[in-house]
Amino acid sequence: MAAAVLLGQMLRQFLEANFRRLSYELNTTQANIYQELTMLQSLQNDVKTMKQSLSELDMIKEAISDIKFIKDVFADTQYIKESQQVFAKKQVDILLQLIQLSYSGALMIGDVHDRVAKKQHCLDLRNLGKNASGLYTIWPLGSFKPGVEVHCDMDIDGGGWTIIQRRGFGSYGTSRQINFNRTWDEYVQGFGNASLDYWFGLENLRGLTKQCPYELLINMTNWEGENRYALYDKFHIGSSLDLYRLFVEAHSGTAEFKLPLTLKICLIEDSFLYHHKKQFSTYDKDNDDNWGEANSNCAETYGGGWWFGDCLRSNLNGVYFQNDGFLRKDKLNGIRWNSWTGMKESLKMTEMKIRPKCGFFSF
Hints:
single chain; alpha+beta; Gamma Fibrinogen, Chain A, domain 1; nine-stranded antiparallel beta sheet; two-stranded antiparallel ribbon; 11 strands; 35% helix; 17% strand; rod-shaped
């Protein structure tokens, strides 16, 4: 009997001890679970905060994108100010539609409006039935002006030629011709009177020839009344960053040296092809290849802005000399075309004209 009582006491003590141990372990496990649940909830809060931050960041990016878009649309504030409010709103709507449809970036804010009526070059006008040579307004891409007045040749070889340079057609009713010894900025923007003598402008020229292949036709007249031409099947110029470098190839024509063959010393090469890949220079911005004569400036020496090398075989923007044998001969700084009239005789009239080879319409 005593043994049974003792055994019962021992069993009870064993159970109590195990119960206390299990209770302790259970409490510890519950505490750990609670701690992990707290950490998990904290992580969930962090994730939620991050999601909110990402959402806010997306909203900021979207707002920045909207701001940039609005800035691009209204970049040409000068044109918007000059337009009436109702008309400007219609133009913005047209711009928005064009931006959505085209990602080429070729169309600029000042050029996309009313493109059916406003053409980029003379061939556009010719194909709309404008058959008479004369003055027209065109809208080349990148122009400094809302519209550029040019002289269009609608007669030679089917017409559609945009004249980019003109000499010898008078000068505002005076006996002297317009001065072509201009600054770099003037040559970039263009100068003169399209009905008389003028320069189209390098940036205008770049705006046209960067779109598609162009051909170049140069018509020349000497003081004896002879007419010659030079045609180039490939013509364009580089950007302002490349200093409007000239690219011209595939020559044909009649502007060849008029003296006997024995006198064609170093003049067999076409006068304009020599200037291929040369950068444009003016007296105030020397970009020529002339390293002789103490690195002299060809534009300063020979006058006018041109694609000088070392220094020239032609210069249609040189000094204009009147119809006097003494004045127009023996002038190295005149309007020169060495492969026809030699190095010292100045020409009477010149026209440089270009035409696109990429189809009928520019849009």
